[in-house]
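User: Structure with zinc ion, tokens only please.
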Amino acid sequence: MERERLLLALDFGGTKLTAGLAASGERQWRAHRVIPSPPGSNAQSDLEIMMELAGDLLVTAEVPLVKVARSHGGKGESPLLPCSSAPLLLAVGVSFGGPVDWTRGLVLLSHHVPGWENFPLRDWLQDRFGVPAAVDNDANAGALGEHRFGAGQGYDSLMYITVSTGVGGGWILNGQPWRGADGMAGEIGHTVVDPDGPLCLCGKWGCVERLASGPCIAQRAREWLEEQPGRGRILRALAGGDLNAMTARLVAQAAAQGDGLAWEALEVAAWALGVGIGNAANLVNPRCFVLGGGVTKAGQRFWEVVRRTACQTALPGVHFDIVPAALGDDAPLWGAIALAEDQIST
Ligand SMILES: [Zn+2]
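Assistant:
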């Protein structure tokens, strides 16, 4: 009997750690675990938790484990028992929530967790698992996941955009990830759509992220409620009277229930995103934009403004689809599976 060929995917997110195990060629998880990143965590503690998660998955799948001594864990050696028909781990793919040097498999830093500066995550994992590993940032991994397994299937060129705490993006061009000369391609969140807009964390004014991210939608709504005491009755009620409890989700809920102020706060985000998309379409002319992240669940009206603004911004000859992501929060994790799969097929 042929041994089952398994791939391990790891997602180091800003707030949670996720691991998934899938058989090569299959489109469903064999095993899947997610846990919140504990407060005060650092690179070392996140790595320990992730190794525990991965160990659990491999034990569940009955992959025989032999601890690999670091000094002997060179490329080509397998930590697996060479006997039996037990499943075989072939490769590990990683989605990391922060900038990554793809060619060297190096995490450059994390914006959320200390201790990741210049950490050689690919080599570290190859040492421990004794199989090839690949590490990319979460936006590129999300693009790859949606392209290979989700809403981007069948599109030769696409941009994946995730709109949640931040706004990130990744490109697939000619069927392959396009990471850019510095690995920084896809930073649509820091393209400027309103030079007179508010100051972004990056130091520029009126970036897409500063107008469209979840925390910025919440902040805008809160400021408007403070400035306009006679408006936003539904939103105020949903927030329980505590404006500091404001979230983009509440703004979207209130907008759906007919709150005018909430809708206007959301509309700014949809407009900014639409301009960013239209500009990106003019520059690169991809066939599709795949949008994921919590903010994109804000409802039909939000999507209409994104689509209309993007079309108005793009030149008449530039055609593209704008579609919702199909894999939800799992897009980067499926991208990690694709990264692992590419390690064994190339
Ligand atoms: Zn910015």
